[in-house]
Design a protein that fits this description.
Blueprint lengths: L1 H19 L4 H18 L4 E8 L2 E12 L4 E2 L7 E2 L4 H14 L28 H5 L23 H7 L16 H15 L3 H10 L24 E5 L2 E5 L13 E2 L1 H12 L3 E2 L2 E2 L3 H7 L2 E3 L8 E2 L3 E2 L8 E6 L4 E7 L4 E7 L7 H13 L14 H5 L3 E5 L17 E6 L3 E6 L2 E7 L4 E4 L5 E6 L5 E6 L7 E4 L5 H29 L13 H24 L12 H6 L1 H20 L7 H23 L8
Antiparallel strand pairs: 1-2, 1-15, 2-3, 4-7, 5-6, 8-9, 10-11, 12-13, 13-14, 14-15, 16-17, 16-23, 17-18, 18-19, 19-20, 20-21, 21-22, 22-23
Length: about 625
């Protein structure tokens, strides 16, 4: 025990030494300059803003690149506003906890008690509480349609949004986390109901003004005095930066805020120092300490979810905070409570997605590197590892509308390598993990963890990423998998091409000569119905590709063209039923060629398979 205590003391001393090296601001600025400027060049990003605080001092606040490329306006840390995306949620959580500390809200109360204009259905026995919402465990599906808007005219009060956008409960409350914008929006609505103020007014009075955050706003469009300071958002395409329109967020409390790097230093310092900044207070120390404590955990070896704070701890260092993404802005705010350190960074170009986490990794390697030796792997065999192999799907996606199909394209796949480790492939990223115990693995050359749990039958059911507490990965098997669904689509596609082109061609060729056989071709009506059915299917698939050439556009709402397109699968239902009746009439009729009858029967079966697949992905009917 004494050796362990000495080791722990040594690790703590090393961490403090590394943290103290941040105070060498010349070295710090040189490191950050090199890192940011390299990313801006290599990733094609127009501009960035960053700030770092420690022990109540601003160590660095700096802008890089341009806030307006055409005008060559440089980014300013204090005068350039960047959209901070879901970091906005931290202001919502602070607001909730302010009201909790005043006794006006209870974290364990059924939120339906506070919801005046709408109610959450009692789909599961356990009611949803504010604690569930703050830990992203209310059990809601995700909704993406209408998450953004193209103008301020279509923005509505929160109560009107939830009147038409109530997410369905798809899992029991308090079990598995699944990041939810709409649940957070409900918490903000509760703040409005209890305080008697609009959310914008509440945040300005109770957070922004006490912290003198004069360059921060949730309002859309921005107030007149801040609008000229707003950085443009960019999409990099065709070798140039293309300016994009201002992004409007209907659920404004969850992602609409714009702020400067200097303003974010005030917010970070207030959280790091008992809820106060230079005499201004946003939360009492006891409530803030409670808020930073563990609230939900998927597995004993992975990071817990705090009360609103994400826990992204790594390298033996506790790190809490939040990330934030819009289409064009990508941001991260992380806090290191043990050393009173805070880091905020934001990029203003689409290529910055995911880059904020890479930047955090680089920062950690430089100032908070891994100190403890890596845990030794457990000796296992291929049979043990094989139970973890398979596809895993993040549980954050829509379950009941036409965007459900988006879940099909993000599966992570685990395979067994050399009977000693697991290979985890997600997109273009491949990592290897070695076993530590019966359900826990660490990355081969680091302390980063993945873990698993089992269902009631003892089979592996979920995977958890160690520093990603906001959702779980469901193990996917059978017809739900990407491979079976892709196979079905390919079969349907082949039959569609055959019916539309090969079948008429063969019929045309045969019409040019007189058959000596006693059998004849299938009736024109049966063939015509089949051809029309597959023509409509082909038109639907082709129309879907054209309409959703930019899949992200659906977040603005369903275009009229897509609404009209959804009529085609409905028309295919009676046509397919006609084919079924025709098949029963023709299959035993020896007057017609056997090959023709068998092909017709096959085309009928595949037509029904196509309709089943469209139904499975919510394309039969108007699900949006």
């Amino acid at each position: 025990m004494k050796k362990l205590s000495i080791l722990a003391l040594l690790v703590l001393t090393l961490h403090n030494t590394n943290a103290q090296s941040l105070r060498d601001t010349v070295r710090l600025e040189g490191f950050i300059d090199g890192m940011i400027e390299t990313h801006l060049r290599d990733k094609h990003i127009a501009g960035a803003t960053i700030s770092i605080v420690q022990d109540g001092k601003v160590l660095l606040a700096k802008g890089y690149g341009f806030s307006d490329v055409k005008k060559q306006t440089p980014v300013s840390a204090d005068a350039s506003l960047f959209r901070i995306g879901s970091i906005s949620k931290m202001f919502t959580w602070i607001s909730v906890m302010q009201l909790v500390s005043q006794g006006k809200l209870k974290l364990d109360e059924d939120v339906n008690v506070y919801l005046k204009d709408f109610q959450i259905p009692a789909t599961y026995p356990k009611a949803i509480t504010l604690k569930d919402i703050m830990t992203h465990t209310p059990g809601f599906e995700d909704l993406v349609i209408g998450l953004f808007s193209k103008d301020s005219v279509s923005l509505k009060p929160l109560k009107e949004i939830f009147a038409t956008q109530m997410p369905t409960r798809v899992r029991p409350t308090g079990t598995y986390a699944s990041y939810s914008n709409h649940a957070t929006g409900m918490a903000a609505y509760i703040v409005e109901q209890v305080s008697g103020m609009t959310f914008n007014d509440y945040v300005e009075k109770n957070i922004l003004q006490p912290l003198n955050m004069t360059h921060t706003s949730f309002r859309q469009p921005l107030p007149a005095n801040l609008k000229p300071m707003m950085s443009e958002g960019y999409k990099y395409e065709g070798g140039e930066f293309v300016k994009q329109p201002f992004e409007y967020v209907p659920l404004y409390p969850v992602g609409s805020a714009a702020s400067s790097a200097v303003d974010m230093t005030k917010f970070m310092e207030a959280i790091l120092y008992n809820g106060t900044w230079k005499g201004g207070s946003i939360l009492d120390s006891a409530t803030l300490q409670f808020m930073e404590g563990p609230a939900h955990q998927h597995h004993p070896r992975v990071n817990p979810m705090r009360y609103g704070f994400m826990d992204v701890s790594q390298n033996g260092t506790t790190i809490i905070g939040h990330g934030g993404d819009t289409f064009w802005f990508h941001s991260l705010m992380v806090l290191f409570p043990a050393t009173h350190t805070g880091l905020f960074v934001s990029f203003n170009t689409d290529k910055g997605g995911g880059l904020v986490l890479d930047l955090l990794d680089e920062f950690m390697k430089e100032y908070f590197p891994e100190q403890a030796p890596l845990a030794a792997p457990m000796k296992v065999d291929a049979k043990f590892l094989q139970q973890f192999a398979g596809a895993y799907r993040g549980n954050r996606y829509p379950y009941h509308d036409i965007t459900t199909i988006s879940s099909l394209f993000g599966d992570a796949r685990i395979t067994v390598v050399d009977s000693t480790k697991l290979r985890l492939a997600s997109g273009e990223t491949v990592k290897y993990f070695v076993p530590l115990d019966s359900t826990t693995f660490r990355e081969q050359n680091s302390s980063k963890i993945i873990a698993f749990d089992k269902d009631g039958t003892g089979k592996i059911a979920h995977m958890f990423i160690g520093n990603l507490a906001i959702f779980a990965f469901d193990k996917v098997s059978g017809i739900k998998g990407a491979s079976p669904q892709t196979t079905i689509f390919v079969i349907v596609l082949i039959m569609t091409v055959t019916v539309l082109f090969y079948w008429p061609f063969v019929s045309w060729i045969r019409s040019g000569y007189h058959s000596t056989r006693d059998t004849i071709s299938l009736p024109f009506t049966a063939r015509g119905v089949a051809w029309l059915n597959y023509f409509l299917l082909a038109s639907f698939y082709f129309g879907l590709v054209i309409t959703l050439s930019d899949p992200a556009s659906i977040v603005y709402g369903i275009p009229t063209s897509l609404k009209l397109l959804l009529m085609l699968p409905i028309i295919c239902i009676p046509l397919s039923l006609w084919m079924v009746l025709s098949t029963f009439r023709l299959v035993g009729d020896n007057r017609f060629r056997l090959s023709g009858r068998m092909f017709y029967a096959l085309s009928t079966i595949i037509s029904l398979l196509a309709l089943w697949q469209l139904y499975y992905w919510n394309f039969v009917g108007f699900h949006y």
